[in-house]
Design brief:
Layout (H helix, E strand, L loop, with lengths): L3 E2 L3 E4 L6 H8 L2 H4 L10 H10 L11 E5 L5 E9 L7 E7 L9 H16 L4 E7 L3 H9 L3 E12 L2 E11 H4 L4
Parallel strand pairs: 5-6
Antiparallel strand pairs: 1-2, 2-3, 3-4, 4-5, 6-8, 7-8
The protein binds coenzyme A.
The site of coenzyme A has 21 residues, from strand 5, helix 4 and helix 5.
Length: 180
């Protein structure tokens, strides 16, 4: 069982007991609003996708729960997926489930742990991420971790009744762990 420990959070595998709450997050449009689309699915299909994620590099299912080390409560999720059929990189995604825990650096710490784990375990040189151009917290989080904004896709994501432009970001192995 892979557990990634940071000063404030640990990323640990998702347990069956987490799933009812995580399913509620997935089906709450206000949690990701106004920056992303959300998915509605059945509880059974959610459980199946979490269980199948380990053997599927392209799975969009959450891979780790974010647990606060002191409180021992689950406050968020992170995932990663092979994002392109030909190009070789892994994209990360992240969500803090309650608004009260946002803005205290937990997202940055969690995504940093995930990126470093992926660079240790995946044979890729680049970790990527995308975010709605209006998602300032997400852009800042990525930039503080050393990601560079590589471009902007126009009208790439439909949510909340309109098309949105999306930044794509990337960080290379050398940028994240400079030699010497
Ligand atoms: C994106 C998210 C994970 C960020 O996590 P977080 O723990 O709240 O962010 P952090 O505290 O690590 O801060 C990241 C940066 O954003 C800034 N920030 C945080 N909230 C902000 C806000 N509401 N407005 C402007 N900047 C904000 C912080 O100051 C920090 O910038 P700094 O390093 O220059 O000081 C979290 O806000 C979230 O879950 N949002 C909803 C889901 C989502 O948008 N996921 C990403 C989809 S691409």
């Amino acid at each position: 069982m892979v557990v990634l420990e940071g000063p404030t959070v640990r990323l640990r595998p998702i347990l069956p007991a987490d799933c009812p709450m995580l399913f509620d997050w997935y089906n709450d449009p206000d949690l990701v609003a106004p920056f992303d689309r959300y998915t509605t699915e059945t509880y059974d299909s959610f459980l199946r996708s979490v269980a199948a994620a380990e053997g599927d590099p392209g799975s969009l299912a959450p891979r780790f729960a974010i647990e606060r080390r002191t409180e021992r409560d689950v406050v968020g999720l992170v995932g990663h997926y092979r994002a392109h059929p030909v190009l070789e990189y892994v994209d990360v995604w992240y969500l803090l489930g309650s608004r009260e825990v946002r803005g205290h650096g937990l997202g940055r710490e969690s995504v940093g742990l995930l990126v470093d784990h992926l660079l240790r375990t995946e044979t890729v040189e680049r970790i990527g991420a995308t975010c709605d151009v209006e998602n300032v917290p997400s852009s800042k989080l990525l930039e503080r971790l050393g990601f560079r904004r590589e471009g902007t896709m126009r009208s790439a994501l439909f949510h909340h009744g309109r098309w949105h432009d999306v930044h794509f970001y990337g960080v290379t192995r050398a940028e994240r762990s400079p030699p010497g």
